[in-house]
Specification:
The protein is of the alpha+beta class. It is built from two helices and four strands. Helices cover 39% and strands 20% of the residues. Helix 1 crosses helix 2. 16% of the residues are buried.
Length: 107
């Protein structure tokens, strides 16, 4: 009868590999959303702007729906206005629902 030695290194390496794969998947998804929003414009009528403050100037036709700590939901009529948010101080622009989860409820 033999007792096999279980190495802790193998378990940690597997955990790190899985964590790296998960991080790559999530990063790719956010990267896709950022590029799609900038290239094609918002899917709905609103975008979520992440940054330290509300953008100082908004592009023509854009308006603030809600603002909170480090985030602002802005109406963006087209792709150009979504791209212009970057020039006005936005760190990240992502698609958002106009009324949050209320948009998902049936009428």
């Amino acid at each position: 009868m033999t007792i096999e030695r279980v190495t802790v290194r193998g378990g940690v390496a597997k955990l790190l590999k899985r964590g790296a794969i998960l991080l790559a998947i999530v990063s790719s998804w956010f990267g896709f959303l950022v590029v799609a929003t900038a290239a094609l414009g918002p899917v709905g009528s609103a975008v979520l702007v992440l940054g330290p403050h509300v953008p100082a100037r908004l592009p023509e036709g854009a308006g603030i729906l809600r603002a909170g700590s480090g985030r602002t939901v802005v109406t963006a009529p087209d792709a150009a206005s979504a791209r212009n948010l970057y020039t006005h101080g936005a760190w990240l622009v992502l698609p958002a629902l106009r009324n949050g989860c209320m948009d998902l409820r049936p009428a």
